[in-house]
Amino acid sequence: MLYTEEEVLDYVKEEDVKFVRLAYFDLSGKQKNATIMASELPRAFENGIAFDASAIPDFEEPNKADLFLYPDASTLSVLPWRPSAGKVIRLFCDIKNPDGTPYKKDCRHLLKTATAKIKAECGVDLQFGTEFEFYLFKLNENGEATKIPFDNAGYMDIAPEDKGENIRRNICFTLEQMGITPEASHHEEGPGQNEVDFRYSDPLTAADNASTFKWIVRTKAAESGLYADFSPKPIQEKPGSGMHINISCSDSSKNENILAGILKHIEEITYYLNPTENSYNRLGEAKAPKYICWGKANRSALLRVPVSKEKARIEIRSSDSGCNPYIAFTLLIHAAIDGIKNNLKPCEPSDLNLFDPQVAKNSGYKPIPDTLDEAKYIAEKSEFIGEILG
What is the rounded CA–CA span in Å between residue 360 and residue 355? Predict the structure, then answer.
């Protein structure tokens, strides 16, 4: 449900809300928040709540440190694990300058702008869905995370081997209570590895849901005495964890253009889809593609067009949960715009098993960057990235 400011204020009064968490994101995608008393919410809607931008990495210097959080009423969620008396709600915020203009490094604003641009210039809407993989590890006697998996189950195993079943159920119940409905969940290939998938929605909602999901998983894991690890390769000899991104277009005749646009720019975007050194330990191994190509139902291809009776979609399989979903989606939308406006056409689909090293070597396909430094270098010299992110 999308709320207005007036409806949020009425809800606060009628439902005994005492605290409001104002959430926003740094450039890495890490969620930050300031908590205000519910009585301060009208002021926050009207004038914003100031915060010190110089304390946020890569935001502003101390001489330009005043920025303001303006709550987005449509993002109201109740935190269901907090007491029902004196409720706590969460609102995502827009970040603005003192003069009320949008802050240039507000990643939610970047995504809003990209979404409006593809509608205005190409006449289409895109929808995004995500698939998250993560590990559950035990804690030691001091409550610190270990690399000991919670179970030794495998792909789509069931209880009692799958010990994460109840935790996934708890995660899904909590998300539903916050107005977010997961599509599916199951145990993944690795020991203690789990997956939860989301149905597609508009880009901003999908990014908000992705950020909320990671927070909920960590919270529920901690409540169970466990540590949720979203890193791309937490155990070297075991399967890595990705965050697959699915894109659907309102006009399916543009799918080939979108596919071609993403293939054209994927090297430049890789730094933002795979933003940690650990990311590059995952790529090129089973379930984590490395070569720039696409395939129909080919899971070894970087981009996949799944066989489906439902809405056609494009799946980006290289990305991982370390990325900032707002920036990742923004760049993918701009790549789609380039593909549509310039009527780009993709190469022929690949049916090769590119997880076979010899097959990959002989394929002729170009690999995405091998290291974080290489990916960063390509992004820094990219005119495409510069025009979008500055």
Answer: 7
CA angle 203, 34, 68 (to 5 degrees): 70
Q: Residues 326, 332, 334, CA angle at the centre, nearest 5°?
A: 105
- The end-to-end CA distance of the chain, in Å, is 34
Collect the ranges in the chain with pLDDT lower than 50. Answer: none
* Alpha helix stretches (DSSP H) within 314-356: 325-341
Look at residue 91 and give its three-state secondary structure. strand
The C-alpha atoms of residue 150 and residue 234 are separated, in whole angstroms, by 13
Are 22 and 32 in contact by the 8 Å Cβ rule? The answer is no
Residue the block writes with tokens 């995502």: 92
Contact 292, 368 (CB under 8 A): yes
Mapped onto helix, strand or coil, the DSSP state of residue 59 is coil
Q: Which tens digits make up the pLDDT trace of 269-311?
A: 999 999 999 999 999 887 799 999 999 989 999 999 987 766 7
- Angle CA(187)–CA(193)–CA(196) in degrees, nearest 5? 55
- At 169, is the secondary structure helix, strand, or coil? helix
The pLDDT score that the predictor gives to residue 220 is 94
**How far is the C-alpha of 136 from the C-alpha of 222, rounded, in Å?**
10
pLDDT at 84: 80
92 in helix, strand or coil?
strand
Burial of 166 (0-12, 13-18, 19+ CB in 10 A): exposed
CB atoms near residue 300 (< 10 Å): 23
- Please give the structure tokens belonging to residue 55: 């304390």
How many CA atoms within 13 Å lie on the side-chain side of 314? 29
Q: Is 311 left (phi over 0), alpha (psi -120 to 50) or beta?
A: beta
**β-strands 226-229, 193-198: how paired?**
unpaired
Cα 321 from Cα 315, distance rounded (Å): 15
Q: Is the dihedral of CA 150, 156, 159, 164 positive or negative?
A: positive
Side chain identity at residue 232, one-letter code: P
Q: Which of 122, 346, 126, 385 is nearest to 245 (CA)?
A: 126
Which among 339, 336, 337, 330 has a CA at the least distance from the CA of 385? Answer: 330
